[in-house]
Each structure stands twice: as structure tokens, then as C-alpha cells.
Amino acid sequence: MTKNDDLLDTDQRRGGVVTIGVYGFTAETFLEQLTGAGVGLVLDLRQRRGVRGPDYSWANSVRLQSALAATGIGYRHVKNLAPTTELRHLQYREDDRQGVGKRNRITLASEYTARYTREILDPFDLGALELPGDAVTALFCVERDPEACHRSLVAAGLGLPVTHLRPGG
């Protein structure tokens, strides 16, 4: 069991949703969080399925899928829920305006949130994700804090109880 926003109760373990990012985790702690939360499926919400730098090479798609498979966790890339390059650049401009690096961001720009919701989330049929009812599904992207990432918007759109897994939790 992990110390995170809310501990997963038995009902959530049967079909709940968690969110998790890359930053702040090692491959080992990432997998520990997922297995501890009872995750059976990871939905990768990234547009580009790689992370720069040697500290996070484990999160590059091929390596990540191999590590997940070794622990019995399924993987699916849902590119249609990834922000477009234009939206990512909109957020980067706001980060620059505020003087924060993308790895230090703690919130999303309001314009980004509105446009992501209108352009990507609203047209997407979240029911088509076919989440497993017998295991927890993890919504996965890169940012450490869910409030700084579109995965929190997707999680809210699902209308299910959500636990945010964070490093050190």
C-alpha cells in the first residue's frame, strides 16, 4: 500500500484509476507504486513516448513496456488523448512567462486547460477506453504533479475515484 492522496480501498483495487508521472521516480520505485496500487493496465497518454536524459531512460516506450510486461501489467498507448504539439508549446510559453521549467511546473495554464478540454478531451469517447473492471488503470504521462499534467484532466473526465501516485508516496 502506498502513502498517496488517498489509499486505495478494496473497491478501487477492483477497477479504480490512478495517475502517475515519470519525474521523481526511478524504474524500481515507479513499478513499486504501480504494483502496490494493484495496477493491471497503464494507459500512456504521451504524444512522444520518450523522456530525455539518462535518469529517465527507463520510461522510454520499449523499455517501459518490457518492464511492465515483466511485472504482469498491461500497456496501451492512447495517442488521441495526448496534447498536440501546438498545445504543448502554449504551455511552454506560459512556463517561460512564469519562469518555471517544465519539470518544476505545478499547475497548467488556464488557456491550455480550456483548449485541451475543448479540442481533445470533449471529442474523445472516454467510454471507448474499456477500462478493466477487475484491476486498477494508471493514466501515465511525464510530469511529477498531476495538477501540472493533462492526465489530471483525463482522470476528472472519467468521473471515477482517482488516486494520484507521487514519488516518495
**Shape category:** globular
- Helical run tally: 6
Approximate strand percentage: 5-15%
Instruction: Round the Cα radius of gyration to an integer and report it.
Output: 15 Å
How do the helices and strands follow one another from N- to C-terminus? HEHEHEHHEHE
**Share of helix among residues?**
25-40%
Low-confidence stretches: 1-13
Count of distinct strands: 5
Q: Structural class, from helix and strand content?
A: alpha/beta
Walk across the major sheet and give the strand order. Answer: 3-2-4-1-5
Largest sheet descriptor: 5 strands, parallel
Mean pLDDT: 88
Tell me about this structure:
This protein has a five-stranded parallel beta sheet. By secondary structure, the protein is α/β, with parallel strands linked by helices. Helix content is 35%, strand content 13%. The termini are close together. It contains six helices and five strands; from the N terminus they run H-E-H-E-H-E-H-H-E-H-E. Mean pLDDT is 88; it is low at 1-13. It has helices spanning 10-13, 27-36, 61-70, 85-98, 110-121, 150-158; strands at residues 17-20, 39-44, 74-77, 136-140, 162-164. Helix 3 links the parallel strand 2 and strand 3.
